[in-house]
């Protein structure tokens, strides 16, 4: 599955916030958004990834960019995961129908039945500015990848 | 705003913390004193003949004492005790609060007033944040992260891997300096 390409208008999708409120493509309008797809809450590697990203989340927001974590975990699990990590990056759930939004972004890992490790930068116009897909879910993108993608999409 | 796009890890500088045989292969370790995997790594690095450079990768979200212990080690370094402090912190990660650090200073014969002033010096914070920035730009996404030649290795290294690096068998090894 190829990750959504730069220049593509983001199709309609629906995720859920940690409070269970729908989060759709309409919520992307007017803001630069980074969606960080990851396999599972509470897995060791994902834990590392978000604690590293948290180190510079203030610098991401200072650039006027919103950042979210996206996985197929239920909202309650994501909320507990974020609280446990002590991070502020909001989480979006692709739980039901499982992986539907991730498939739209080309960020679903069919062999594992889970979200792949991917990053998508979407501009305020709702168009993908830059995207990244890991070779496999075990490859952990550093925060430098996020900043590289933001620079590409600027 | 600082640049956090990808960049290679800078070679050794004059203020880097380096130990080991000067002619041994160099490993740059980005690590955190509160991280158990980093403690294991420190022990494994001591078991092989390598030259080790320690750089800070202290994540605020990882542990409430991550940054504090990094600053404390830097302050100890100003009294020529960085590695002694480093080894003592990793030897007892259950005792990282200020009273424990002061007791450690006493044991190492450090000037505690100077230690306290130095760890609160903005230059000390800048030094630690410089290291963290290097790790982030190199793509480090876990602690520890090791740089061997031009390659970044994430997580605690296997002893066999380190033994191969020590004997320069590890593919891709190239001395930076």
Looking at this structure, what is the CATH superfamily of chain A? Glutaredoxin
Through-space gap between termini of chain B:
30 Å
Order of helices and strands of chain B: EEHEHHHHHEEH
Helix % of chain B is 40-55%
Oligomer: heterodimer
Which fold name is given in CATH as the topology of chain B?
Glutaredoxin
Main pleated sheet of chain B: 5 strands, mixed
Question: What is the correct CATH architecture of chain A?
Answer: 3-Layer(aba) Sandwich
Radius of gyration of chain A: 14 Å
- Total strands of chain A: 9
User: How many distinct domains of chain B?
Assistant: 1
State the CATH superfamily name of chain B. Glutaredoxin
Highest CATH level, the class of chain B: Alpha Beta
CATH topology name of chain A, in short, is Glutaredoxin
Order of helices and strands of chain A: EEEHHEHEHEEEEH
**Averaging pLDDT over every residue of chain A, what do you get?**
94
The number of domains of chain A is 1
What are the key terms here?
heterodimer, A: 154 residues, alpha/beta, Glutaredoxin, two-stranded antiparallel sheet, 5 helices, 28% helix, B: 177 residues, alpha+beta, 44% helix
Describe this structure in words.
The complex is a heterodimer of chains A (154) and B (177). By secondary structure, chain A is of the alpha/beta class. Chain A has a single domain (14-152), classed as Glutaredoxin, CATH 3.40.30.10. Chain A is built from five helices and nine strands, in the order βββααβαβαββββα. Chain A has helices at 44-54, 57-62, 75-85, 100-104, 143-152; strands at 14-16, 22-24, 32-37, 65-71, 91-93, 108-109, 114-115, 118-122, 128-133. Chain A has a five-stranded mixed beta sheet with strand order 5-4-3-8-9. In chain A, a hairpin with a 4-residue loop joins strand 6 (108-109) and strand 7. Chain A is globular and about 35 Å long. The two termini of chain A are 26 Å apart. Chain B has one domain: 3-Layer(aba) Sandwich (Glutaredoxin). Chain B has a five-stranded mixed beta sheet with strand order 1-3-2-4-5, covered by helices on one side. Chain B has 177 residues and is of the alpha+beta class. Chain B has seven helices and five strands; from the N terminus they run E-E-H-E-H-H-H-H-H-E-E-H. Mean pLDDT of chain B is 93; it is low at 171-177. Chain B starts with 16 loop residues before the first strand and ends in an 11-residue tail after the last helix. Helices cover 44% and strands 13% of the residues of chain B. Chains A and B meet through helix 1 and helix 5 of A and helix 6 of B.
């Amino acid at each position: 599955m190829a990750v959504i390409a730069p220049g593509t208008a983001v199709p309609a999708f629906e995720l859920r916030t940690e409070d269970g409120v729908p989060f759709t493509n309409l919520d992307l309008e007017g803001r630069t958004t980074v969606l960080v797809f990851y396999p599972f809450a509470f897995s060791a590697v994902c834990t590392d990834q978000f604690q590293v990203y948290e180190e510079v989340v203030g610098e991401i927001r200072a650039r006027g960019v919103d950042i979210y974590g996206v996985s197929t975990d239920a909202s309650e699990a994501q909320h507990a995961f974020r609280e446990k990590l002590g991070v502020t990056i909001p989480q979006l759930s692709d739980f039901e129908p499982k992986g539907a939004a991730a498939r739209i972004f080309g960020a679903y890992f069919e062999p594992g039945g889970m979200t792949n490790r991917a990053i998508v930068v979407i501009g305020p116009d709702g168009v993908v500015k830059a995207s990244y897909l890991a070779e496999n879910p075990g490859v952990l993108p550093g925060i430098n990848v996020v900043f590289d993608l933001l620079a590409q999409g600027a | 705003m600082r640049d956090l796009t990808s960049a290679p890890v800078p070679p050794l500088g004059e203020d880097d913390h380096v130990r080991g045989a000067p002619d041994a292969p160099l490993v740059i370790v980005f690590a955190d004193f509160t991280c158990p995997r980093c403690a294991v790594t420190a022990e494994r690095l001591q078991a092989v003949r390598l030259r080790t450079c320690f750089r800070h990768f202290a994540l605020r979200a990882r542990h409430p004492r991550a940054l504090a212990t990094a600053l404390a080690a830097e302050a100890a370094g100003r009294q020529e005790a960085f590695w002694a402090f480093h080894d003592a912190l990793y030897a007892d990660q259950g005792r990282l609060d200020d009273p424990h650090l002061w007791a450690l200073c006493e044991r190492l014969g450090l000037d505690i007033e100077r230690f306290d002033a130095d760890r609160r010096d903005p230059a000390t914070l800048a030094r630690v944040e410089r290291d963290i920035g290097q790790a982030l730009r190199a793509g480090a996404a876990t602690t520890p992260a090791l740089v061997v030649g031009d390659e970044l290795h994430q997580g605690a290294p296997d002893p066999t891997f380190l033994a191969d690096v020590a004997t320069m068998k590890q593919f891709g090894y190239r001395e930076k300096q």
